[in-house]
Amino acid sequence: MYKYLKQVLIYSLILIYSCTDKVKEPTNTQQANYNKNFNTIINGFNKYIEKAREDLNKHEKDKRQLQNYDDYKIAIDKYDKFISWIEDNPDTKKKLDTDFTEAYNCLEQRRAENAPEKTLDEYIRDAIDCTNNPLSCKDTRKKYGTKNNQIFLFFTYNFHTLFHSKNTLKDILVKFKTLDISEVKDKF
């Protein structure tokens, strides 16, 4: 009887320890890849919008004068409505993801050449932060463009083109599909 008791104890311990493993949910890598380009570009626009909102708040508190205050406010509201609309339309989001491939690849190439230690989201965030706070950044010309911060200019130019004009959400979508990457591609 003692002979089998040791084996029963060992098998029961193995059974107990193996039952404590958490069940892993299957990850949908294809879904994650669908949104990779979209999320990266939108994160850049969100960072730009974050800075614009700070400027609006400073203007409202009389800490900083902002020209075209009303235009900025309208553009930010349009952006928020557009992003909400895109989030509610997953098919449109997938289509935009494929349309953003060229812009994503161009930004990724610049990041790989100039800041391989960072992720693309970090690279974009740092580029926008460097424009907003130039004293904290070093060698921005080498990292983000030859003359100016081309990464920041890419988001600035596209934001103004898309959201400062009097476009409907559908018009913005059509223009959003073809982001102008000349600031990053040609002038880097």
UniProtKB/TrEMBL annotation:
<keyword id="KW-0614">Plasmid</keyword>
<protein>
    <submittedName>
        <fullName>Family 113-like protein, lipoprotein</fullName>
    </submittedName>
</protein>
<keyword id="KW-0175">Coiled coil</keyword>
<feature type="coiled-coil region">
    <location>
        <begin position="42"/>
        <end position="69"/>
    </location>
</feature>
